[in-house]
Design goal:
45% helix, alpha/beta, 176 residues, five-stranded parallel β-sheet, 16% strand, Alpha/beta knot
């Protein structure tokens, strides 16, 4: 990226308000492999208190050979929505949403910081996100056109939040 990108990042940095923000990551699935826990923890710990990322794990519905998947997904969606903090900006991670570059995510993060509402990011389970979550969301966000395993999504989100924060603060982690 050229000089215009650097100038835009500097403008975003100047617009940031020093108001602490908590990013709530609400994810279906409570028993994750160690590599998921380690990956998520690595990047979440790098974020400063002013932009803390907190994971809330919502147990997945019990799946079996005769499980009613539509009912399970609906129940998971209800539990996700019930866990959303009042007044927060609701962002549903969904393949139907726009894909953001790292610079665009940094702009989103700067906007969330300026807005003063804590964002709540919703990650569905292995069978997707309930349509009610998409309907209620203030924004949709697609990480990729690829189908990603839902445990991996929390690691990618944590890393990208740290990368966006580092870009806004001219930290050397992000090298464009």
């Amino acid at each position: 990226m050229g000089g215009g990108y650097r100038q835009n990042a500097e403008t975003l940095r100047r617009q940031l308000v020093a108001v602490p923000m908590k990013i709530h990551l609400l994810a279906i699935g409570a028993r994750m492999p160690d590599w998921v826990k380690t990956g998520y923890a690595e990047y979440a710990a790098r974020l400063p208190r002013e932009c803390a990322l907190t994971l809330f794990e919502i147990p997945a519905g019990k799946r079996g050979p005769n499980a009613d998947l539509a009912r399970l997904v609906r129940a998971e969606g209800e539990r996700l929505l019930a866990a959303v903090s009042p007044g927060s900006r609701l962002i549903a991670l969904d393949e139907r949403g726009p894909q953001w570059s790292t610079a665009e995510l940094a702009e989103q993060l700067a906007g969330w910081l300026r807005e003063g509402r804590d964002p709540s990011l919703l990650i569905g389970g292995p069978d997707g996100l309930d349509p009610a979550c998409r309907t209620r969301a203030d924004q949709l966000w697609s990480l990729s056109r690829l189908t990603l395993p839902h445990p991996l999504v929390r690691v990618v989100v944590a890393e990208q939040m740290y990368r966006a924060w580092s870009l806004l603060h001219n930290h050397p982690y992000h090298r464009a």
